[in-house]
Model the fold of this input.
Amino acid sequence: MPKEAVKFLKLTLIRGAMNRQEAKEKIDALTASLKEHNYRYYVLDEPVISDLEFDRLLKELEFLEKQFPELKHPDSPTQTVGGGVENEFNTVKHKRPMFSLGNTYNEQELREFDERVRKVTGEQVEYVCELKIDGLAISLFFENGEMVQAITRGDGVQGDDVTDNVRTIRSLNLRLRGNYPPSFEIRGEIYMPRKGFEKLNREREAMGETPYANPRNVASGSLKLKNSAEVAKRPLDITLYHFLADNNPFKTHFESLNNARLWGLKVAETTEVCKGVDEVLNFLKKWDEQRHSLGFDTDGVVIKVNNLALQDELGFTAKVPRWAIAYKFQTESAVTELLGITYQVGRTGAITPVAELKPVFLLGTTVKRASLHNANEIERLDVRVGDMVFIEKGGEIIPKITGVDFSQRKPHLAPTQYITHCPECGTELIRKEGEAQHYCTNDNECAPQVIGKIEHFVARKALNIDSIGSEMARLLYEKGLIKSVADLYKLQFDDLLKLERMGEKSAKNILAGIESSKNIPFERVLFGMGIRYVGETVAKKLARAFGSMDKLMEASRDDLLQVDEIGEVIADSLIDYFGSQEHRKLIQELKDSGLQLQSSTASEKQSNKLQGLTFVISGVFSKMSRDEAKDLIEANGGKCSGSVSSKTHYLLAGEGMGPAKLQKAEELGVKIIGEDDLLEMLDGSAPAKDETPVQGSLF
Ligand code: IVH
Done:
C-alpha cells in the first residue's frame, strides 16, 4: 500500500474512537465554520483561510458525516461538491410566471418608459438599477431557510427542475442565516465568470477540443448536465435579484435585496437606488464605460421601480412588467468587407474557418480577422466572400460576425463552399456525425498538426522540455530536423549547431532538457502524446488503470469502458489512435529512446486477499478517494470494473452512488458493501461497529 494510504488509514482508526457526543459537537462546529468560510469566500469575497485549509476542514467534516450520518446537517457544505448522481429533469410549472423584460436602446426610449410610469404614479420615481448579467434566469424556493427547489426559466410558464445541479454552485448558500421569511421564492441569474470560462477553455484546448464560443452557452449547458459531480466542476456563479413571497414583508425592492444579502444570499454590490430618470442615466453612463473591467459579461442594465406597491399598481402587459425595463448597452459594431475565408488547422486536425476582413477600427483596436467557428455558422449567416458584414464586440473582447448586410450584397456572389480538403496537406476532410467541426486525419504529416503536437509534447504539464518553446518546435520541424516527437530523442548536438543563431550553450540546454524528460512519469508522457480527449486527468486514470503503455494498447473497448470516468467517446478515440500503425511505430520509438512508458507508481502488491474478486466502485467515500479505493483493491489482488455485470462480486457503494448501479446490483444479487467492509476484508482493521454506526446505515 502506498505510504500515504497507510498514514490515512491509521488516522482513520484514531478518529473512529470519537464518541457520538464529541462527533456531534465537532460536526456542528465544522458545519458552521465551513459555511462561514464559504460565505466569506463566495459572497463577501474576503476569505480568511487558504483553499488548502478549507479543503482540509471539508474532508474532516465529510469523514465525520460518513461515520455519523444521522448527525449530518441537511444543508451541509459537503453537499455542494456534487454527489455523482444521474439527474433526470422534471418539468415543473412555475408558481408565478417568469416574465421577460422590455428593451430600450437609448435615452429617448428610457425617458418614454419613465413617462409611462409617472402617468400612473404622478411624481418623480425611485428606481433601482442593476447590471444585467448575461446568463440564464433561475427561480429558487426556500422553505424554513433551506433551498428546496431550483427551476430554470424554460418558456416562462414551466421550466426544468435542476435543484441538484444548482446545489453545486459554491456561492449559493443552501441554508440561510438571520431573520428570513419561512417561505419565499427568489430569482436570479446563473452565469460563468470570464476567468472560469477561460480556464475551462484552456483545459479543453489541452485536450485537443475546440474552445466554447461564449460563457453564456457553457453556463446553460452546464446546468443541463446529467451528472451533478460534473456540474460541480464547472465554475458557475449566481446573483439574485428578485424576491417574491405571498406575504411580502418589504416595502421596496431594494430593501428586499439588502435583506436577502443579510440571509447570506449573493446580491450584486453594484446595484443602486436612483432618484428619477436622470440619476438612472448617470448609472448607465458609468457602467457603459466600466463594464469591460467586470469579471463577467453584462449586456445592459435592468431598471426597476423600487416601491413594491407601485410595482403592483403598474402590473404587467401580456409579456413584460410595466414596472421594469432593460437598457441594452450599445454593442459597438462596424460594417466591413469580407475579403476571404481562411482555414486554420489545430493540433488535433480540427479545422476552424477564419474571416479575413478589411481592417476596421472597433473599441480601441483594429480588427482584421474573426472566427467563423465551423461550417454550420457559415451556413447560418449565409456569409459570402465580398459581402459587407457586421462586426461586434459585445462584452467579450473577441470580435464576432453577427450578420451580413444583405442590402449591400453584390449580385452573383457565390455561396460559400466549405473546403473539402485540408488547406495544409490536401487530405480529404471528415466530419463525424453529430460534430460541428471538420477534421484533417493526416496527423503524422500535416504540418500544423505535427508542430502543434510537438508544442504540446514539450509543454510544462507534459514532458516539460522548457528549453524548446513554440518557436523552437516550429524551427526544428521546418528545418527538417524532426518529423515527430520521437525524433526529438535523435537530435544531435551538431545538427542543432547548424541552426541560425544557435550557440553551443543553447544546444546543450536543449539536449539536457530532452534527456531529463526521460524521467517524466508515464501518465505525463501519455498526456503529452496529445491523443484526442486524453487530458491530464484522463491520462492519470488510464495510467493508473493499465499501468503501462503496452497494457493500454492491448485494451479492448470494453476494457477501457470499465475504467472509472472513461466513456465511449474517450474509448473510441483511444482505439482509433492505437489502431494506427504509425502511432504504434511512434510509441515503439519512444520506448526505445528510454521514455517512461510504464507507471512506477503502479501499486505494489500488498496481498492476495482479494484475488479473483471483481469490484465496482460507485459514489463518494469519506475515508478514501475513489482512486485510493481502487489502488487498495488492486494492491490486494482484486480487480475493478466500471459497470455492474454478472461477473461483479462486490459493489463498493459510497454516498450519492448511481441508482441504476444499485438496482442492477440488486437484480444480479451482487453483494453491496461499504468502505469499512472493504477495510475489514483486508485486515479486519475497520473500527468496531458499536463505536461507528457506519455500515449498513446507507442500505
Ligand atoms: S428581472 C419581471 N433583473 O434578463 C422581472 N432580469 O430580459 C424579470 N436578467 O430572464 C427579470 N439580470 O434572465 C431581472 N437584474 C436583473 C437581471 C435580469 C439579468 C435577465 C433574466 C431575464 C432576462 C429578461
